[in-house]
């Protein structure tokens, strides 16, 4: 295994930073051998099969083409749970784990809360919340049928029941229920920031999940906030992941729409990243 790790490192040198190469090496070996990282370290001199070696070369070819390692492997981890991912869904980000953590810490897990995740993608938010709020009734919407297929598989793999629906949040039907909590991590990257974004994101992740027009970057937030005002119970909570530069504008938007007890929260890098309010 030590030799293989070195081979991976040599193949990817110059394409990925050294710090990332080591992590990628372990992820590839974990997938190919079924060993944990500790087992890989303990089995330094074990060889991998010819079949695994061929598979490894396929993985390396894709990685050299800047395909994200999560898509190459077809899986990732979010909030300590396994998730299938492909190019129909955004790769779940660590900032979003922080949003889930915030919701877990700020709400009562012993209550049968009605929760809704808008723009569910891989289902990472809805599924990790349902795992932590087992009594909750969880709904999740997305406009993309392909993303919803992945989310359904992820719910099955993680053994949770979620009501997934194909809904365009700009044109929602009427609902005969009200929710206690609505959460969303909608598309929020202005088109003009495309040039600053890494090639593996631009070339492989779904644009529909990421970008918003420069002339109206808050279009999802305005629509979802208005939807939440109508569809939350009195005292219900709205949570958003946000662009790090829109904290002030989001405080204004939520205030204008009648939300109170607003809380703006920074991510681990010290950037404004989450907001919540009560109606
Ligand atoms: C930033 S991704 C978030 C995915 C996932 N919730 C996460 O946190 O990793 C935004 C999601 O919104 C979905 N989306 C885009 N436009 C939408 C619309 N009009 N109505 C509902 N969902 C939409 C995309 O398909 C994508 O899955």
Description:
This protein is of the alpha/beta class and 279 residues long. It has two domains: 2-65, Helicase, Ruva Protein, domain 3 (Orthogonal Bundle), CATH 1.10.8; 75-278, Rossmann fold (3-Layer(aba) Sandwich). The chain has twelve helices and eleven strands. The protein has helices at residues 2-12, 18-33, 37-42, 50-64, 69-73, 94-106, 124-132, 145-157, 199-204, 207-210, 219-231, 247-256; strands spanning 75-78, 81-84, 114-118, 137-142, 163-166, 179-184, 189-190, 211-212, 232-241, 260-266, 272-278. The strands form three sheets. It has a seven-stranded mixed sheet with strand order 5-4-3-6-9-11-10, sandwiched between helices. Strands 1-2 form a two-stranded antiparallel ribbon. A two-stranded parallel sheet has the order 7-8. α1 crosses α2 and α6 runs parallel beside α7 (124-132). The radius of gyration is 20 Å and the shape is globular. Bound molecules: S-adenosylmethionine (SAM). S-adenosylmethionine (SAM) binds at residues 90, 92, 96, 119-122, 124-125, 141-144, 147, 168-170, 185-187, 208-209.
